[in-house]
């Protein structure tokens, strides 16, 4: 297989930041908060770049949907080795309600437009933890999917994917074109090298709107309220083991 | 777009002061990459490296792969082909993670590669720079002697010509990287009567017959980097190993140190910033008298003073780097940057321990390591006293005309 890979990269609040809920409970605070590329998206980019280095594919295209700042995330992907970027501009209220269904519609439209043979996404984003975009994209395109991939290899005109599932590891072979979602152990993403950061400046990022792709991004979901997780309550101290057993029995736990 | 403007400025090859307010996009990306590397690969091991005095060989190789060990070196010679502002940003972020790793990077870039890049022949550059760009090999800079540090012109290491070889004899002191280096730039006098105009620079591989290393110094800080004497006893090198013209050694050393000062200023900024980060984080969490201590004015005033010290030193450092990148004179600004940043580092690390109280005095928190690491920045590559003399000298020259 030689061809084009689309990699979706999402700009999320950095994993190390302490998340705070807005006073009106409508969403989390994002102003002035450090953002970076979703860690699973980094793994997806790394896998695509590795495939290109092994000459298994010809071109890696990084895609991100969002406001102007999404371009920073695309540039990071370019500095890691992606060839060009596509920024699908979504701002304001539309961006606040943007979710897996709309993203998968956009990715499906781009896959057709770019004649992509492979889409690699992170298995989920660390802000909404949906774990839906890959699966929905595959369904919209009627392509096979290899999700939670911890190992991906090309075997002739098929892709072998080792998936991390609850029971252990599942190995499947799927046809190309396909959608793959990256899990933690797929690879260790590289740090951008300085020469690649310089080269990334010259790589192109195309701009477009969802309407240009014929995609309707109206949300079918409404967020009613966002709450912080309940504060951890203090436990109860007991003096003896007998006390402990009787308290556990009282609570119906033994 | 701001990207196009930044691109145009970079292509024009000239640096503008507006870059002090907002860094170009490549530099922002570079800074973020180095910060991520420092957070993930250096901070978690810095305390152990310090405790065990271990050289971070793996991390130096990873930095080499990123291009950080030879930032100014053109790509044809194996470097990253970037400017000194980028180098300063990288140095600060790396030193913020681990000051010892920072000094290894700085010595390799500014003190070892620097003079060879500026004064070497094409063959010398290929032989002595290219293998030192990957992080597998690092170099060092041997100027100071047991008898003279600040008084660099009084070098007593001698080099005399014997046929087609130079023979060097003498001892160099306080050489950073010495035990981990594969080559050194050595300054020796070829004509004692000419005093500082009789000093020349030489390139010597390590190991090499006639070159031996003294014991590793047991230092207060930056303990993961090695510091030792280099002893030369009838050390013979080919005539081609002279760097630059005969008698140009002192000038080469002084020019090298000008650039090195930007590197060390950046290292000091990294240490100062790490101290501020540690102190501010602690102030949010530690409660006393019923609230976090960040509510107390005594603590707030300290944090404000620390932030001002760091930001002003940072702007001085960036200005020196920008002037150097525009090929304008930068000696005074580099000395000011090194002076301000090193004094900021000792001030901030001192205050950080104060804010942490008892916790600042124990190795459970990094504050004590920052305090120990900061101290050397006021001494090496020109003591604060020498920096003041350099600044005054430049200043008085300006007023004379």
TrEMBL record, chain A:
Any Pfam family matching the protein: ETF
Domain Electron transfer flavoprotein alpha/beta-subunit N-terminal per the UniProt entry, residue ranges: 25-217
Recorded GO MF terms: electron transfer activity
The keyword Electron transport is assigned to this record: yes
PROSITE patterns referenced in this protein's UniProt entry, alphabetically: ETF_BETA
The organism's place on the tree of life at top rank: Eukaryota
GO biological process, any: fatty acid beta-oxidation using acyl-CoA dehydrogenase
InterPro entries assigned: ET-Flavoprotein_bsu_CS, ETF_a/b_N, ETF_b, ETF_beta_N, Rossmann-like_a/b/a_fold
Main location (coarse class): mitochondrion
Locations listed in the record: Mitochondrion matrix
Family: Belongs to the ETF beta-subunit/FixA family.
Functional summary from the UniProt entry: Heterodimeric electron transfer flavoprotein that accepts electrons from several mitochondrial dehydrogenases, including acyl-CoA dehydrogenases, glutaryl-CoA and sarcosine dehydrogenase. It transfers the electrons to the main mitochondrial respiratory chain via ETF-ubiquinone oxidoreductase. Required for normal mitochondrial fatty acid oxidation and normal amino acid metabolism. ETFB binds an AMP molecule that probably has a purely structural role. The electron transfer flavoprotein serves as a specific electron acceptor for several dehydrogenases, including five acyl-CoA dehydrogenases, glutaryl-CoA and sarcosine dehydrogenase. It transfers the electrons to the main mitochondrial respiratory chain via ETF-ubiquinone oxidoreductase (ETF dehydrogenase).
Protein name, as recorded: Electron transfer flavoprotein subunit beta
Gene (UniProt): etfb
Automatic annotation (TrEMBL), chain B:
Pfam families xref list: Acyl-CoA_dh_1, Acyl-CoA_dh_M, Acyl-CoA_dh_N
Listed pathway(s): Lipid metabolism; mitochondrial fatty acid beta-oxidation
GO MF assignments: flavin adenine dinucleotide binding; short-chain fatty acyl-CoA dehydrogenase activity
Keywords: FAD, Flavoprotein, Oxidoreductase, Transit peptide
Domain Acyl-CoA dehydrogenase/oxidase C-terminal residues, every copy: 247-395
Cofactor(s) it depends on: FAD
Protein name: Short-chain specific acyl-CoA dehydrogenase, mitochondrial
The species this protein was found in: Sander lucioperca (Pike-perch)
Encoding gene, per UniProt annotation: acads
